[in-house]
C-alpha cells in the first residue's frame, strides 16, 4: 500500500514522459501503472500529482522493463547498473569536488546527448547541462531528473544537506512550475541561458563519508536519493557565521536567520546544537571579531563601533566586550604601555 505520510508533489508530466518511451518502444505500461496506483483519469489530468513513493515505484519498474536507467532520455539505452558504475568511479575521490568532476566526465562516456560540467566562480559552484541533441518530449523530465540525481548523490556522498542557491532551466516555465519549489530548494528560474543548479562552493571541499559497503547498500535503494531531504547540514555553522558577518545589521533573531537560510527555526536550533554551537554563541563570536577589527584598524568612536557591532547602546557593548576579552574597548584600543624594568643596582 501507499505510505500514508506521502505528499503528492511530483507532476504528472513526468509520468507522461515515461509513457512516451513505452509507446515509442511498442511496450504496454498497464501493469506498471496499476502497481503504482495510477489510473487513466490521473494520467489525463495535467494538474494531477503523484507521491515520491509512486515515482520511485514506477521509475524502478520502468527502468527494469525498458532496461534503461535513463528512461528513454537519450538516443541509446543506459542498461541497468550504468549509474552504479559512475558512482563506483567517484566514491574513491578525496572530496566532493573531485567526485562530482569525475561523475560529470564519466557521464559523457554513457551518452553524448548531454554534457555535464562542474564550475566554480568564487563562493558559488555550478553544475550545468549542455544539450547536444534535441531531447524531444522527454526534455524537461530528463534535465530535471539529471540535476536531482547528481544533487542527491552529492548529499549522500558527504552525508549532508546541500542547500541550493537556485536552479535555472533553459526551457519556459511549464504549467506545473509551482511544483519546482518542492523539487529544488532555492529559487527556480525558467527561460535561462542554461540549465544548472547553484550552491555554496565550500561544500566541494568536504571529504566523502561513504565507502564501498555503503555504496553497495545505497545502490539497492538508490531512487529515494532524488527526494531524500537530509536533516543535517555539515556547513551550517559556517553559513550562519557568514550570514551574520554580512547582515548583522538586519538579521536580529533566529526567525530571520532561518528564513535567510531556507530552514525552519526549529531545524536551525537543532542542527547548531548537533554541531556543538548555538545562534547566540555565533552572534557573540561575530560581534567580538567585528568589534576587535573596528577598534584595532580605525579611530571610530566607541559608540559607532558599538552600533556597527550590533549593539543598541555603548554601555551594553562595553559590558559585553569586557566579558569577551577582559578589557574595555578603550583598553583594547590603547593597551597600557609596559613599564621598563627598573635598573639594577650594584
Any descriptors?
five-stranded mixed sheet, disordered N terminus, 3 domains, two-stranded antiparallel sheet, alpha+beta, 346 residues
Strand runs, count: 7
N-to-C SSE string, H for helix and E for strand: EHHHEHHHEEHEHEEHHHHHHHH
Largest sheet, strands/sense/barrel: 5 strands, mixed
State the secondary-structure class: alpha+beta
Q: Gap between N and C termini, in Å?
A: 98 Å
Identify the overall geometry: elongated
Flag low-confidence runs: 1-5
Mean pLDDT: 87
Helix coverage percent: 40-55%
Overall structural domain count = 3
Written description of the protein model:
With 346 residues, the protein is of the alpha+beta class. It has three domains: 1-66, no CATH class; 78-226, no CATH class; 236-333, Homeodomain-like (Arc Repressor Mutant, subunit A, Orthogonal Bundle). The chain has 16 helices and seven strands. The chain has helices spanning 12-24, 30-35, 40-43, 52-66, 82-90, 96-110, 139-158, 180-183, 212-220, 236-247, 254-260, 265-274, 279-297, 302-308, 314-325, 329-333; strands spanning 8-11, 49-51, 114-121, 124-131, 164-168, 187-189, 195-200. The strands form two sheets. A five-stranded mixed β-sheet has the order 3-4-7-5-6. Strand 5 (164-168), helix 8 and strand 6 form a beta-alpha-beta unit. Helix 5 (82-90) runs antiparallel to helix 6 (96-110). The longest helix is centred in the middle third of the chain and has 20 residues, at 139-158. The radius of gyration is 26 Å and the shape is elongated. The termini are far apart. The relative contact order is 0.08. Mean pLDDT is 87; it is low at 1-5.
Amino acid at each position: 500500500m501507499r505510505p500514508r505520510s506521502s505528499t503528492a508533489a511530483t507532476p504528472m508530466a513526468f509520468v507522461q514522459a515515461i509513457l512516451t518511451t513505452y509507446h515509442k518502444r511498442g511496450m504496454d505500461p498497464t501493469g506498471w501503472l496499476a502497481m503504482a496506483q495510477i489510473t487513466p483519469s490521473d494520467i489525463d489530468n495535467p494538474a494531477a500529482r503523484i507521491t515520491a513513493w509512486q515515482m520511485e515505484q514506477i521509475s524502478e519498474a520502468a527502468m527494469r522493463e525498458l532496461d534503461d536507467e535513463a528512461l528513454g532520455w537519450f538516443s541509446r539505452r543506459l542498461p541497468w547498473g550504468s549509474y552504479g558504475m559512475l558512482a563506483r568511479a567517484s566514491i574513491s575521490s578525496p572530496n566532493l569536488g573531485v567526485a562530482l568532476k569525475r561523475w560529470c566526465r564519466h557521464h559523457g562516456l554513457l551518452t553524448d546527448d548531454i554534457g555535464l560540467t562542474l564550475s566554480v566562480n568564487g563562493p558559488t559552484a555550478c553544475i550545468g547541462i549542455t544539450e547536444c541533441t534535441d531531447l524531444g518530449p522527454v526534455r524537461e523530465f530528463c534535465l530535471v531528473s539529471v540535476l536531482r540525481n547528481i544533487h542527491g548523490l552529492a548529499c549522500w556522498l558527504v552525508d549532508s544537506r546541500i542547500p541550493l542557491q537556485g536552479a535555472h532551466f533553459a526551457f519556459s516555465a511549464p504549467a506545473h512550475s509551482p511544483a519546482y519549489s518542492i523539487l529544488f530548494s532555492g529559487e527556480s528560474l525558467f527561460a535561462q541561458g542554461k540549465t544548472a543548479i547553484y550552491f555554496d562552493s565550500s561544500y566541494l571541499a568536504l571529504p566523502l563519508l561513504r565507502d564501498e559497503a555503503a555504496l553497495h547498500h545505497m545502490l539497492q535503494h538508490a531512487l529515494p536519493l532524488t527526494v531524500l531531504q537530509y536533516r543535517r547540514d555539515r556547513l551550517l555553522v559556517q553559513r550562519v557565521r557568514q550570514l551574520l558577518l554580512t547582515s548583522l545589521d538586519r538579521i536580529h533573531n533566529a526567525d530571520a536567520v532561518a528564513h535567510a537560510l531556507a530552514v525552519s527555526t526549529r531545524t536551525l536550533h537543532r542542527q547548531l546544537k548537533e554541531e556543538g554551537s548555538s545562534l547566540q554563541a555565533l552572534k557573540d563570536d561575530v560581534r567580538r571579531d567585528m568589534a576587535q577589527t573596528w577598534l584595532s584598524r580605525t579611530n571610530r568612536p566607541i559608540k559607532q563601533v558599538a552600533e556597527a557591532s550590533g549593539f543598541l547602546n555603548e554601555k551594553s557593548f562595553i559590558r559585553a566586550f569586557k566579558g569577551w576579552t577582559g578589557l574595555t574597548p578603550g583598553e583594547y584600543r590603547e593597551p597600557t604601555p609596559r613599564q621598563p624594568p627598573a635598573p639594577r643596582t650594584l
